[in-house]
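Bug #77: duplicate submission created two jobs. Keeping one. Sequence:
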Amino acid sequence: MDTNTTAKVLAGHAVRIAEELRAPAIIVSGEIELEDFETDIPIYYVTRRQKSIIDNLISDTVDEGDHLKKIIEPINRETSGNVQYIEEAAAIEHIIGELREGTIVGLIQTKESSAIVIHEISQSPLIRILQECEERIEPEVMRAALTIAFDIAASGREGHKIGTAFILGDTEEVMERSHQMILNPYAGHKDEHRNILVKKNWESIKEFALLDGIFVISEEGLVHAAGRYLDVDAKDIDIEKGLGGRHVSAAAITRDTFAIAVTISESGGTVRVYMDGKELLCLDYIERPVLGNARQRLQ
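Kept job's structure:
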């Protein structure tokens, strides 16, 4: 059976499974096209750079077991990477409100293998982390902060990559343990203009993310300050080597208060979440999946 026929058979099964499960979406990683299949389920396509494992098919070893291992291990790694990519893409789309909760059907095609993946969004590590934070921060506020963070990670501002941090919750303590080095752009503004739950305020937040310092945001989503510096002792903070002062101080303030920190790295656009001085989440920037008809318009 040739590759195209195999892909078509697999795609047909994926659509039928998705319809039986009433999946909120089908997410495709690879070159498989589902436009020929009739379904009301939204189909998303994710872009992932593939690595060929052809070199692993050439071996100078006489040990058949080692030869087979060299073939299988790269396939497993690549498939696992694509599965994780689909799971993260689904979780992000759910957080920003594009996908309802439910069971996602993923369809993966690499140069060497294909697979159908069933993924329950509620079991995503990203969703579970959100649930951990709910005791301290309103879920909608955490979702809004992460949505803005993903947007900054993806597009930066004015064509430039930027990094910033949102310190969420325990506002009084955070304000006491920080200071303003520039005029606070949010001072004196009405609540409706400082609320991150109001989408029309997101552009100003992304604009002020260009400033040095961090944002201080209340449990209810009101921005108290931007361009603020944290006065913390970063001793004993154990974070990934190579991260700058913003990440260290953000982690430290969560150790000393009940706040939660969301950081965006200027280099690479990695989004991290800290609580109690420890990293809860590290999510590298990924391109958002493209809805099927939108993909056709782009081609």
